[in-house]
Fold this protein.
Amino acid sequence: MDKMRMESVDMTAQNIEKIGALFPNCITETVDENGKPKKAINFELLKQMLSCDVLEGDEAYEFTWVGKKAAIVEANKPIRKTLRPCKDQSVNWDNTENLYIEGDNLEVLKMLQESYLGAIKMIYIDPPYNTGTDFIYKDDFAQSVNEYEADLGSVDEDGTRMFKNTDSNGRFHSDWCSMMYSRLMLARNLLKEDGVLFISIDDNEVDNLRKICGEIFGESNFIADLIWQKKFSRSNDATYFSTMHDHILCYCKKNILNSADGWKIGLLPRGDEIPSGYSNPDNDPRGVWTSVILSAKSGANSLLYEITTPSGRKVSPPSGRYWSCSKETFEKWKDDGRIWFGAKGDGTPRKKTFLSEVQAGLRPNTILFHEDAGHNQEAKQETKALFDGVGVFDGPKPVRLLKLLMTIANIEDGDTVLDFFSGSATTAHAAMEYEIEKQIKCNYILVQLPEIISEESEAYKAGYRNICEVGEDRIRRSAQKLSSDNEDAAFDRGFRVLKIDDSNMNDVYYSADDYSQGMLAMLESNVKSDRNDLDLLFGCLLEWGLPLSLPYSSEQIDGCTVHNYNDGDLIACFDENVPDSVIKEIAKRQPLRAVFRDSSFANSPSKINVGEIFKLMAPDTRVKVI
């Protein structure tokens, strides 16, 4: 039986494997910090393999800052952390498919890389806007002023300043860019092929954010810079202009123009009225409307051909214009009765479009007016109403805005929405309302750092001590209100709370070179003394890449607690000295995966016996120990 790794996936190692699959001759070996051999890339040889594409010299179009390389390295580093379940803070733990994760979102995103790889339909984030002061997310690559100046070259070897810092204070831009770059690198991995990302941001960093997203997602996958009218009315206390908007950048994983399985935008609902700009000159009883089948002033030769009208007149596009379809497509439309040549049968051909097609929906505008998407004051009133008049959040987003983005994202039954700067938990509230209105299942994953609340705030005075406590209570309160307002509505009112923590395993168990005489007392168990069975189970789910929101149950078998995850996706027993009767009962159920503690077996022969039982009764079950 193999031992579980109990750490997040090593993205660098995965990338090396991908490069090796394309260029096996570029794989070499080096040694790690412990002197053990490991795979590496021969970059000089890789450059030769890609010599036509390598940029030589100092001049190249690029976007960089102090700490960018460190941010990329940091995103790829594995961590020895785990997610610990908190049943007491959760609602409907066993059956809910929603998650609320407390912890630094960089670490959480690393933890989710295997369980939710390519599984998220929509990501929405509202990150810190970087107004020129330090922010709460202090990663390893965030630098002090002295470190920044040394890397930038603004001081010489003797510590003498080489040039003066400008008022723009680049250090804060560098820290902010590094924070966002590593997180967006990991976030992109989680998106489905038809997934989409929305990021709220103000004018301070929108330019840098567009460049970062352009690198990570590709400039061809930029969809729009949506302008959200965040204020209901102007304020007259601004120095220059009254700021009425925020940006919401929209990027997709794959653009439908370049990939058949790319993101398809969701259309907004339309009324039953006849759309403006359409007419029905031939009074077709099927109720259709017409449009000229001319395209723009460019096209291929396949779009330039002669058409014969029913009257016998020959028709070609005007000089410099082309038809909007190939001749084969035109003939098919003609055979289907969808081409109209005018009342006398000799006019320029027009395509009939069924009214039902025209009224399928409206393309969203790039300006999101507050009448459709809500505004800041509305958002404050929403949360105050939930918290009995107490203003527990600063700057929450309105529920209508998130529901509108979910519609544009084309969220369908069973899709998952991720928000890893959760803040006021508006995304969860919106997802529940969206479920009710669309009558579909819309799951959410929220991630939030448990930032300490100021003692002067209304939230603190109301009894809350960190922002996660407020966010989780907002979900409970909004679910209760939605249940009251929609008595017969079916939606997921629950959520599982998970908290990031150090590994469940004692480090010395896996680091034999670090053993010392004083550590012998710790060797009685490789599992930390404060960890329970659920902690161990969810650590296994992460490593095995299973979603964290599937149904869970447990039962007693011959005095042992047996955990069953998603009806046999994984069955685990972490008791000491597990008898053969329990092993056989688990094997009899033929789970896809089975996990035990290493200390569950008295000796090596006992472990060998377990392997033989599974070979005989469940040969397809993968068995591991921790």
About this structure: The mean pLDDT is 86.
